[in-house]
Amino acid sequence: MGDVIACANQKGGVGKTTTVVNLATYLALEDRRVLVVDLDPQGNATSGLGLERRTADRSIYPALVDDANVLDLIRPTLLDRLAIVPSARDLAGAEVELVGLDRRERRLANALQPAVSGFDFILLDCPPAVGLLTVNALTAADAVIVPIQCEYYALEGLSQLLSTIELVREHLNPRLALAGVLLTMFDARTTLSADVVREVRAHMGGSVFSTVVPRSIRLAEAPSHGRPIARYSPESRGAQAYHELAREVLRRAQAAGWSGARQQLAGATR
Predict the structure, then answer these.
(1) Cβ atoms within 10 Å of 17's Cβ, excluding its own
(2) Distance CA 94, CA 92 (A)
(3) Model pTM score
C-alpha cells in the first residue's frame, strides 16, 4: 500500500509544484511507482510533466464530485514509472461544488482508494490556499511536506499551516504526519537565507529536511519546457538537491511507516 503525501502551503510561490514534479520524478528514477495528483486549478504540475493542460480531458474533478473511478483518470508521463491525474478547467469549480456534498472533506480520500495499492507513492499538489481542496488533500494524506521559501516571513506562514495541520489531525485524519519542512529558494549570497535556515531549524528541529533547495535558474526554466529538472538539466544544483530529497523521503517513509499507520487505523475502526 503506497504512501500518500500532500505538498501544502497556503502561500504561493514557495516551491510546492516544483517539489511535487521533481520529487516524483526522482522517486520514479529510484524505481518506485509514483502517481501525481494535480489538485491546483492552475495546473502547473500537469504542464511541468509535459501534458497540455488546455487540452486535458481528464482531471480529479469527476472523482471528487461524481464518484468516477480514479483509475480511469490516470495518464502516463515521459517516465515509465510516473503517472499523473492532471488538472483541467473543470477543477476550478470544485471548491464550490464540494460545499454541498456529503462528507465533503473526505471525497479525495475515498476517491484515491482504488489507486493506493498500485503505487508506492501518491503525491498531492495542493493549491495555494487552505480551502476544501487542500483540506481534502490533508485528510487523504499519510504525511505532508511543507515547502517554505527562505524569506523574512517564512516562520509566520509555517506556524499558520502547522495550526491547520493540527486541526485536520484532531478532527479528520488522526494519522496525518509531518513528513518534513523543506527549505526552498535558498540564496547562498544573502545573509537572510542563512538566517532563515538557522531560525527554522532552531524552531522545528529534526522535522526540517537536511536537503535545502537552492534558488536555481535551471529549476525555473524546466517547467516552460514541460520537463522535470532530471530531464532538463540533470547536472544542475537544483537537480542534485531534489535527487537527495527523494532519497531522504525514502529513508523517512521507511522509518515512519506512514501507510502502515493508515492500515492499522483502518483495522482498528472496522
Answers:
(1) 27
(2) 6
(3) 0.93
How far is it, in rounded angstroms, from Cα 176 to Cα 4? 10
Written as one letter, the residue type at 67 is D
- Residue 152 backbone phi and psi in degrees, to 5: -60, -40
Which residues are within 8 A (CB) of 209 and not within 5 positions of it... i.e. 6 or more apart?
180, 181, 182, 183, 245, 248
The span from the CA of 228 to the CA of 156, in Å, is 30
Quick: pLDDT tens for 112-170.
999 999 999 999 999 998 899 999 999 999 999 999 999 888 878 788 899 999 999 99
CA distances from 253 to 9, 70, 101, 142 (A): 20, 24, 33, 10
Q: Which helix (DSSP H) or strand (DSSP E) does residue 85 occupy?
A: strand 82-85
Size (the chain), residues: 270
123 touches 35 (CB < 8 A): yes
Q: Which of 236, 191, 231 is nearest to 213 (CA)?
A: 236
Number of other residues whose CB lies within 10 A of the CB of residue 198: 10
Nearest to 126 by CA among 49, 57, 209, 41: 41
- Count of CB atoms within 10 A of residue 15's CB? 20
Judged by phi (left if over 0) then psi (alpha if -120 to 50, else beta), residue 12 lies in beta
